[in-house]
Amino acid sequence: MFSTFALRRYRLPGLALIVSALTLAACNNASVPTLPLAPESASGFRTDLKTQHAEKYMAAAANPLAAEAGREMLRRGGSAIDAAIAMQAVLTLVEPQSSGIGGGALIVLWDGKAVRTYDGRETAPAGATEKLFLQADGQPMGFTQAQIGGRSVGTPGVLRALELAHGKHGRLPWAQLFEPAIRLAEQGFAISPRLHQLIAADSSMPRSPEMMAYFRNADGSPKAVGTNLKNPALAAVFKRIAHEGPDALYKGPVAEEIAAKVQGHANPGSLSLTDLANYQAKERAPLCTNYKRWQVCGMPPPSSGGIAVAQILGTLQALEARDKRLALAPLTPVKTTAPAGSEPDPQAVHLISEAERLAYADRAQYLADADFVPVPVKGLVDPAYLASRAALIGERSMGTAKPGTPPGIQVAYAPDRSPLRISTSQVVAVDDAGGAVSMTTTIESAFGSHIMVQGFMLNNEMTDFSFIPEENGQKVANRVEPGKRPRSSMAPTLIFDRQSGEFLATVGSPGGSQIIEYVAKSTIGLLDWNLDAQATINLPNFGSRNGPTELEQGQFSPALIQALKDKGHSVSEIDMTSGTQAIVRVKDAKGKASLTGGADPRREGQALGD
User: Fold this and answer.
1) Spatial distance between the Cα atoms of 192 and 200, rounded to a whole number of angstroms
2) Would you say 413 and 365 are in contact if contact means Cβ atoms under 8 Å apart?
3) How far is CA 439 from the centre of its chain?
4) What whole-number distance in Å separates Cα of residue 327 and Cα of residue 418?
């Protein structure tokens, strides 16, 4: 049922105390904040992360320093969106490869009465055309050719979205929310193992003198893990934003430098002062659908993530209604000796992957910015339509799914075959009044466009559009158009109990087009398998983007892999770099509510609360 509103191995002991002490020490210039020695996301797995517990409030982010900033705001009496703003500011500094004020974000928020969503997705400049990424011969550019430089930069939106949400749901003064980031930028922070590895691996960095001066030594080598990295330029920008609001970025000297660097790059773009000044974040009606005894709420277009997750869950529910033997609940994960410690039942992997094939086929065909193209949102999540799609799932894999014909189609479009690169970040927070936020935030690829302005990176979100505007005479829905928001896979999600209307969980993940797989897995882990926050995140990643069935490398048993092959699956073992954060509201035997939280062991995140 579619509705627009919700029902009423490196972890250190006592990490929360350690990070807090280090942050305070940095304020006194006594020492430098450090991170636990977590491996870079694609090269390891922290095996001893434990579910965190809190009585009043909790924040989780992809970096402990950001999570600590969020908790600091909650301790001051701030709301969930206050915590999210503080975390985003710190992530701009300490995780510059993934998100920041030069990018965009999608926010799903619960204010205790209704679910609201805020769209801070970047927009195409007024001067952009559908041929933006076509070469002179009409063929699409290579990705790196398109990414590096001004051509790929869209109008940033995250600050405007946070401003809009804060104006309606913030408790603390705007200026206070930037204090932790300003302190860290001025005093310095320790380069983490993951940031160091990404700096070292970035072959495009030498094209940017500003990035080389900031991230690398004079001889060109990457600055070492633990190096105290200061960013006075970003501190100055944050001070202006704190006192002037987002206009400090969208107008005046900072905006002038953004436009000049984009337009003056060897691979120039058209982003202008007018584009920056005219950007508007949007509040949109949330996409809330029923899944068994729960209600799951996410983002509408331009996100494809909310619809795809809803389709996956709706298809699985239709399967169970058709045949109780296809229910997921009995297929609970089993313990293994792999780092993740468990794996799903082969039948569960089969059913979920097949449902994902169907959702990704529809995503490629129909999903784009609904302000520009007629997206059949209600039809795509219609229970009868999803039941017809579920009927296509059998005991053997269907291989490649074809898009369906949902109710409400107005225009026929060609499928968008563009891949999405893995980057992005995720924050979640729950405040002492029960308000909750899930925000997925991004500059797109690692280090975005590789244009650095006043200590922060500009996005390359334009590459989220289809490089090819039409195919076989049909327009691609996700083609470039001036002012349009590129399709996103980001899927910030809130979960509620349908009967009581009570908030149950906030969850989300980075990961490019695999975000949908990660959020679907985590939602099923929480709801169908009754796993706690950390256990559901730890569960090995798997799924299908309508190609091979993807399994997280090194986490699945030979028996499961063979069982999938016996069902006709083409199996691909790959790195599946999620960065999921989750906070779950639980009740004890006496009905007393508290919070549990988890962070992804594949990255450097942490959940912190009191």
Assistant:
1) 12
2) yes
3) 7
4) 33
**528 phi and psi angles, rounded to 5 deg:** -80, -35
> Looking at the domain assignment, is residue 506 inside a domain?
yes
Half-sphere exposure at residue 232, Cβ-oriented, CA atoms within 13 angstroms: 0
Distance CA 3, CA 543 (A): 27
Environment class of 253 (CB within 10 Å of its CB; exposed 0-12, middle 13-18, buried 19+):
exposed
**pLDDT over 70, % of the chain:** 91
Of 363, 351, 366, which Cα lies nearest the Cα of 317? 351
Structure tokens at 550: 């993807």
Q: Which helix (H) or strand (E) holds 309?
A: helix 305-322
Domain encompassing residue 475 = 2-8+11-285+418-510+579-609
Domain total in the chain: 1
CB 607 within 8 A of CB 59: yes
Is 356 part of a structural domain of the chain?
no
CA atoms of 446 and 194, how far apart (whole Å): 12
Rounded to whole angstroms, the Cα distance separating 44 from 36 reads 13
Q: For 31, which DSSP code? A: S
Q: How many CB atoms lie within 10 A of CB 267?
A: 18
Amino acid of residue 460: N
Q: Which helix (H) or strand (E) holds 519?
A: helix 515-527
Tokens for 460? Answer: 């390359």
What tokens appear for 213 in the block?
């001066």
What is the rounded distance in angstroms from the CA atom of residue 345 to the CA atom of residue 329? 11
* Location of structure tokens 């996103």: 488
End-to-end alpha-carbon separation of the chain, Å?
37
* Residue type at position 307: I
Check if the beta carbon of residue 289 is closer than 8 Å to that of residue 313.
yes
Residue 78 belongs to a domain: yes
Residue 341 CB coordination number (10 Å): 16
- Is 345 inside any structural domain? no
| CB-count burial class (<10 Å; 0-12, 13-18, 19+) for 452 | buried
Rounded to whole angstroms, how far apart are CA atoms 297 and 570? 32
Do the Cβ atoms of 549 and 394 come closer than 8 Å? Answer: no
Q: Determine how many CB atoms are found less than 10 A away from the CB of residue 224.
A: 11
Dump the DSSP string for 132-155.
TTB-TTSPBPPHHHHHSSGGGPPB
Nearest 5°: phi and psi at 377? -60, -55
Contact by Cβ (8 Å): 478, 418: yes
List pLDDT tens digits, range 243-299.
999 999 999 999 999 999 999 999 999 999 999 999 999 999 999 999 999 999 999
* Residues β-bridged to residue 393: none
Residue found under tokens 């001066």: 213
Query: For residues 350, 356, 361 and 362, what is the CA-based torsion angle, rounded to 10 degrees?
Result: 140
- Digit-coded pLDDT (tens) for 92-130: 999 999 999 999 999 999 999 999 999 999 999 999 999
Place of tokens 């308000």: 435
Work out the average pLDDT over 442-447. 94
pLDDT tens digit sequence for 559-594? 999 999 999 999 999 999 899 999 999 999 999 999
Q: Coil, helix or strand for 53?
A: strand
DSSP state of 500: T
- At 247, which amino acid appears? D
